[in-house]
Fold each of these.
Amino acid sequence: MAKSSKKLTPRLRKLSVYLYIPNIIGYARVLLNCYAFGVCFSNKWLFSVLYFISFVCDAIDGWCARKFNQVSTFGAVLDMVTDRISTASLLAILSQVYRPGLVFVSLLALDIGSHWLQMYSTFLTGKTSHKDVKDSTNWLFKAYYGNRIFMGYCCVACEVLYLILFLIVDTQSESLVDVVGSSLQQGSLLSILVALSLFGWAIKQVVNVIQMKTAADVCVHYDIEKKQKP
Amino acid sequence: MANVKKTAPRLRKLSVYLYIPNIIGYVRVLLNCIAFYLCFSDKRVFSVLYFISFVCDAIDGWCARKFNQVSTFGAVLDMVTDRISTACLLVILSQVYRPGLVFVSLLALDIGSHWLQMYSTFLTGKTNHKDVKDSTNWLFKAYYGNRMFMGYCCVACEVLYLILFLIAGKQSESLVDVVASTVRQGSPLSFLVALSLFGWAIKQTINVIQVTCTSYDGNVSLS
């Protein structure tokens, strides 16, 4: 009697975390992304809509987690991994349809590198989220992470820019510079959107570079502190 | 006096950045940058540089232990360089082969499995994701328990991707066609491809297990 009820409780507790509302939203995000990338070449618009919905869910599941008091480590990890993979896949596809493709390969490298180093430094310093950067000395860093709306704008700008680039790819010209240049010169609503996105994207990439340096310093500092302790 | 106190921490930080294995790490990054810059114009140079970088990956670990210069920064630099170089090679393979989404999926699996493994390593207080003493999965223990076998699977993956890139022909972009015709040739290349495919398959299976099982044990129980 005692044995079986003791066995059930941890398993039920585990199961209940997997069934948290925000985590179920997380599974929906994964499914949306799989389906989106499955149709990305055959139906660009459907792909973009699904990708964008998944991105919106990213914000919703965080809100749900706080509202329903269902914050979980698993949920945060699921979120981060889904983000990284969906951005990586979109950049991979952009590198196929544009020349020079290596631009997007480099952006992929920067995305992986900066987030990986940031995750490491977050753990080493015992913070719970890489967004809690209270003691960083870099001004742009503090401005970026200090203002959640600004940070949100930069993140959204990146995704929107990549989606727009995928949607407007010209069959005549694969040249990235040409396509971006002509879309800006149009003077249309699209031009404004592209310009706005480019600005936020640029800031995010600069922050990514700074993040790598800061996080590397944290790793080094961690070793020095460890050696100093008896 | 105060100056001495100020320079000491900075010097110590600098010295970690100048550790021999970390300098090898920087060389790896440079090799990869040059390699990928040349990858379409000179496939062979790309493959040689990529392979040298991969060999350096083993060397810098050995140097770190030999010169007592093991550092967290070095381990992270190593891991990040690995992840990025594999990711970039997979992206390029997705460009030259059809269906490209096969390599995009492998990229997703690589990122997902390594990311989840890093998280669970930290959350369970281990220092190295290769220390899997209390894992319950048998294939996991077999893989991580035998360093030679693990090394073979990792090398097999990189070799397979490099070979696929080198033999990508202009006649057929179809991945299945190229692999099948190579294996059927009955040449040393066929043998190499078959060996690599086997090791690659095991590594991807391990990756899938990591995504489905490790996160279960490493993360959920702690939330």
Amino acid sequence: MSQVGGHTERVRHRTHEGFLRHRSFFWAQVATALCVVVVGVYFFVARDLAEPPNGGSWLGYLLGTMSAGLIVWLACLGVRKRVITAGHYSLKAWVSAHVYLGLSLTILATLHTGFQFGWNIHTLAYVLMMAVIVSGALGVWAYATLPQRLHGNRGETTRRQMLDTIGSLDAQLHEAAQPLDRAAADVVRLSIEQTDLGGSFWKRLTQSYGDCANRRALARLRALPAPGSAVQAEALTKVESLMQQKADALSLARRQMGITALLEAWLFVHIPATFALLAALIAHIVSVFAYW
Amino acid sequence: MSELYKVAIIGSGPAGMSAAAHAARKGLSHVLLEKTDHLSDTIFRYQKGKHVMATPAVLVLRADCQFEAGKREKILDQWNTDVKAAGVNVKFNAEVKAITGEKGAFTIELTRGEPIRAENIVLAIGTQGNPNRMRCEGANLPHVQYQLDDPGEYTDEHITVIGGGDAGIENAMGLIADAGQNNSVTLLNRGADFPTAKKPNVDGLLAARDAGRIKVMAETQAALIEDGWLTVDTPQGQTRYRCDRIIARMGAAPPRAFIESCGITFASPDRTAFPILSPTFESTKPGIYVIGALAGYPLIKHCMNQGYDVVEFISGNTALEPADEPLLVAKLKALPGSRSVSDWLEFLRSRVEILNGLSPLQMREFLLDSEVRAYRPGDAVFIRNEQGSSLFGIADGSVKVEVDPSNPNITVPIGEGSIFGEVGLISGRKRGATIRAAEPTICVEIPRMAALKLMSQVPQARETVNRITTERQVLQIFKSGLTPADIQEVLATSEVIEVRPGEPIIKEGDISDDLYIIRSGSMIVEKDLGGKPVFMSYVPAGSYSGEMAMIERAPRVATVKAAIRSTVVKLPADPFRRLLSRKPELAKRMYDEMRARKEVNEFIESQKEQFGGAVDMYSSVANFLIKQGIGEATDVLLIDESLCVGCDNCERACADSHDGLSRLNREAGTTFANIHVPTSCRHCEHPHCMSDCPPNAIRRGPDGEVFINETCIGCGNCQRACPYGVIQMDKPPPKKPPLWEWMLFGKGPGPGQPSYEWRKKAAKAEGGESPKLAIKCDMCSGKAGGPACVRACPTGAAIRVSPDAFLSVARIEKVT
Ligand SMILES: Cc1cc2nc3c(=O)[nH]c(=O)nc-3n(C[C@H](O)[C@H](O)[C@H](O)COP(=O)(O)OP(=O)(O)OC[C@H]3O[C@@H](n4cnc5c(N)ncnc54)[C@H](O)[C@@H]3O)c2cc1C
Ligand code: HEM
Ligand code: SF4
Ligand code: SF4
């Protein structure tokens, strides 16, 4: 196909590749190579060392320095993500390297320990690191599987539209309730005033909305005695159908929030554990040199 | 008989008002006729509190009314005071409906009241035109209105909005925006769909309808208006319902018909043409002068200066130096040879062929928009693959075109008086070759808008550009050392054809063998496989199509149809075949290309047999994207929903790299098979947004980005013109505290676009007033790393693509 000219653009990331496949698994290859080399050296060298090659040996130092450096760099992702500079970086490339190099820590740091564990600050740092890594792996699973559900659920509806829909259903409920008697009007008020859309993170994550005010209102509405007049009967039917619509709209929005929560849940371990890890790492290094 | 005025001024906008004020100060007998009951209706109708801009800043104001940038209210007050102080004889509610008579004795007929007589007439009625009126019975009742200034004004009313265009939909949505107002709003639409409205508007309306917030009645027309009630004709018959207020937004009739009825000729039948004027603003009807927006000068300062000037001209001062003189002097200062401005104007006009037909007045205006530059031998005027849409005319010297990118020594000359750069002008794509000065050369560079205006005003310029364009495009597409002489036979029978979206230029199976060049727009190639049309390829502007049947003398193997409104040049087969037999190099080139295209087709056909699903998917994704207007995009943001985790980092990155406002709405937009087209600028090949920008602030940048520069006056025309709803009117939020303070102490709103509440509070604390201007994606112009949205996406879901790269067969391999 003939085309006019090539490209003169500045750097453009036009490739359509997710972070896991980035540059045809470049960082996966780097991380694997790193692990193979390190494992090889470890078992080759370990035979000739007097003590087991723990943190104190030259190999231990090397692995320790590499691991600590890696951890600090991995933690920098939190900054990189938020500082938008004009330069040539791509966050996708960062995340790709983050994931694979982060996983390689399981080998690097484990060998650094020389398989010597105990109830001390050193092992604590190791455990925290493994917690960060495991949560990271969960994150990768979430990133790989949940987006389909996230977008499948919302279709082309935006969050704003979801909220607007619920708002306008409330306005219509208010209008439709005008002819109703006191008891029925209270039920409508329950739905309008007490319904809590999202709630706590835990609630969103577990989707526990059994006590939803709109649901209770709907149940109470259906239990009401038959209305006195035809006008009221008509209004009641209208209110019921509006509340049903509201229930549907609520569950759509809540499902959306639920999937979003699921996509973020692992970060609630990943980030605090990162901070704890950094603290433990400093303590670990200081104590090692203090005892020395 | 009534008094005979020396001059009657029609329309009290900035142009007419300034003319009247100057006439009054000069003691000329005059009258100012205004249709409405206030001065300057166009500005009166700006949104409340709008910040009016006084651009171009360098132009001095020469008028008897004051004007500087500020709030609409302040400016209108000032003008009321100025007009009173000058002693202007103004007649309100005086709508002019006809002008008869000749210079020295015109009769002006009004819709109400006595006719008015004048020796000269200044027409300054702007371009707003008259809103189309309702025609049914009761249309004159006072609760029928044609404008909605403040939707917040009405509460607890039954309101019917008539008209399914953007204005009607926006008004209706404004009325229901705040549920607290408790209006019950109905929108009447004459048709079944909303073909003229923007998609986001229609989507918003339909969503509101589905949510029960508004009633939409399609295929419905008003039949009878009564106090408190409206009767309408629906497809199911008549119904009558409550209605306290009618807002009719049924478009406006441009004032052209009225102006022509006065005996004034326009430059061309083109919709965008202006009346033909002399250097003193006199139209083709002696004694009638045209100024302001109607004369093609849409900025308030220009309008006011012309009001002053035209009165000077009418009172016999023809030696008046135009107010823009210092601008032109500055512009021409750097050029060699000390010529005066008028000498330069004449020099350029007489030497550059396409400028020959311009009047001195048009030349002045033309030069204000354009640049004149001197080049030394060897200087590059532009480089191959640069983005550029301006046209160049050679006033002195000559240039050479480097036709072969691999060997800069192979050049083709273009001489004095001719033009170049016209392909970029028409198709909005990149420059096809480097052009350098061959000797000391003076060129005038004409920006795209000015060039289009020139072509619509001067038919001779249009013909010249069209002829040269076709010739050069043929040479450029086929290269192979062809010279203009080689292709004369082919060109002699060529034909320029406009194609509507979806219309085929070639039908599969037909016996026809002409060749087509796509001059603007783009085409898609489809082939019938197993009873279903399958998308084969995308052909952008600057390519050709139809060579297989021409070379092989066989029936057409595929259908080629327009993706968007396009222009193609049809080259008849026989002269072209003769050209091929004379030029073996060209024949080989075309043959190779044909083989490559055939391979693509065969690949798709073979894949179709093995992986029917993958090919169908590829085909339907392509069709979906074409439907989303990708066919006119040059660079579009897509989001792969199988990768997008909804973190909105793209929006935050956009806001943080652009004064704190995101130019992209990730969630909004349409989706098909994991591909989401968010609401974000596509950098159209022919940007609709550029079409009506008074200060000409929308430009194309070096990387193809369409951006808005600092001369924007915030009129909102571009926002209305963009069919994809990607332009917002907003003011940049106050500065945020630095990021580290947020990270460490939680100060400020954090990354991304700050919330409305934070902005309001911070703006209050900061004080000062800033105008709402048009903002849109500029593709992160000037940032070395490229678009921030893509760089900031952690998973690789956000990508920016050009349609020809994205709609390639590589996608099939991806799906399989
Ligand atoms: C929303 C918006 C914002 C803008 N912002 C700016 C800005 O910030 N800065 C800037 O420089 N420019 C701005 N412009 C452009 C500017 O407002 C216009 O170009 C300018 O008003 C044109 O002036 P005019 O005198 O030619 O015509 P108009 O201002 O249009 O005035 C024409 C007058 O003629 C009257 N009239 C029409 N027909 C008849 C008739 N038959 N008989 C009698 N009277 C008649 C009308 O009622 C009106 O009062 C903006 C435009 C718009 C739409
Ligand atoms: C000790 C090792 C690691 C440390 C210190 C670390 C630290 C971090 C930090 C600070 C962030 C930024 C979170 C945010 O601000 O939103 C992050 C994000 C992330 N990490 Fe890790 N991480 C480690 C290992 C891993 C591993 C092993 C994986 C995967 C297997 C992983 C996967 C991720 C992912 C997917 C993200 C999200 C990226 C984004 O959405 O921007 N991490 N990590
Ligand atoms: S390319 Fe730049 S300006 Fe455009 S949407 Fe992306 S971040 Fe915003
Ligand atoms: S803003 Fe202009 S260039 Fe961008 S999509 Fe709209 S019309 Fe096209």
